[in-house]
């Protein structure tokens, strides 16, 4: 009703066709502006920013890992260059990244490997990791621990990798489980003259029966210790079965016989499960029983295979895993990583590092500056962040104007809504002491303000207007419009609930609208 009366008061004659054409053009322009903003963000800005962030992350992570390697190895300039280049080469041509190669170097360094030893061992570590399908750093840690436990040289890293890979693929276990078992059994096996190949063969065959990882390693370790220091019951069994546990060494000193030979003699003597329990103890005898049930000949055969026929097994298994689509994707990822490092080395990483350093210093100094300066910097940042949003919003507004131009009723209603919003904001500002002070209005029991659209809209407000609280006042609140119409917000009392205030303000706005509309009609009639 009000909207139609406002349109009739304007009295303009509207060319509907022209308005329709203008409306369509405005909507099209707004839509194009929105599309331009979205297209620029999605097709240009976002990919460039994403690519740059990806490059910096890959190059930065590799730099951090190599810095750790340098600290652990105390490598000189030339040595560090060799380590860095090898890490990049391995990362560019294998399924692993340069950062993973650097992390593997770090674990070897922690195990006491020197720079030349790391350079010699890394290809073997990578082959074993590829064969096992596990990460490079974990594999480097496992292999270095095993090699140190058995006293192997860095030049033997390739053979050790091949032994572990073949043992894992020949029995019901994997490289990780084998490494976990060797963590417990290797020190005692080395001390008693048991080779890596024999130890891996025993752990693998025990794994066939489901005893794996730490359980297998602990069982073998206990069995070795019982042979080293047998009790009275164990000695009695050995004497009964006529099995010797010690022999004379080349140096003329007595030493413990190899456990594989002892197990062979026990099998030939037809040792019973009870005999094995008395020799090795209840827990360790389980593993020894499994080995004897499978046959000591099988154990010896596997140990010989691991020693003489394991060459390049890890490399072949690693290459087999790289076949097919998954392998090519891994190779592509590695190639992209090398590209990122190359771009970083070309200057991007150094330039970014210098910029970040300057930005850090600036930020530290900025924290010491005047608060007004901080406020200015914050406003500038907010402005920059709001530019894309502003473009989108401007496009939306342009489209909305086009719609309103095609529909005058919508235009008039929009103007009315804008006026009502302005009245609401003003009322809330007058009612809230904090907002009122911020707007330059001193709070008081009676606040008066000129509101466009009426001669004098006087609002008698309280000290607060917050949902869920009371509006306190010293007198009966009311709104007087044009010095004639008075609308009571409340019939009396000293407090109002927020809901009652809203209802009263709504009545006051309606009265103001009616009064202003009546005045407009009179003015329009007088003009005619």
Largest sheet: 4 strands, antiparallel
Quickly give the structural class: mainly alpha
What's the arrangement of strands in the largest beta sheet?
A: 3-4-6-7
The general outline is elongated
Indicate the radius of gyration in whole angstroms. Answer: 43 Å
Order of helices and strands: HHHHHHHHHHHEEHHHHHHHHEEEEEEH
How many separate domains make up the residues? 3
| Unreliably modeled segments | 1-10, 419-423, 432-502
If helices are DSSP runs of H or I spanning 4 or more residues, what is the number of helices? 20
> How many strands?
8
**Mean pLDDT, rounded to whole units?**
77
- CA(first)-CA(last) distance: 23 Å
Strand content: under 5%
Helix content: over 70%
Explain how this protein is built:
This protein has helices at 2-10, 16-73, 77-93, 98-110, 115-132, 136-150, 157-170, 175-191, 196-208, 213-228, 232-241, 259-268, 273-294, 296-308, 313-321, 324-366, 371-406, 408-431, 433-438, 498-527, and strands at residues 246-248, 254-256, 447-448, 457-459, 470-472, 478-481, 485-488, 495-497. The protein contains 20 helices and eight strands. The chain folds into three domains: 2-50 and 332-406, no CATH class; 74-322, no CATH class; 409-527, no CATH class. 74% of the residues lie in helices and 5% in strands. Helix 12 (259-268) runs antiparallel to helix 14. The chain is elongated and about 130 Å long. With 528 residues, the chain is mostly helical. The strands form three sheets. Strands 3-4-6-7 form a four-stranded antiparallel sheet, covered by helices on one side. A two-stranded antiparallel ribbon has the order 1-2. The longest helix is centred in the first third of the chain and has 58 residues, at 16-73. Residues 1-10, 419-423 and 432-502 have low confidence and may be disordered.
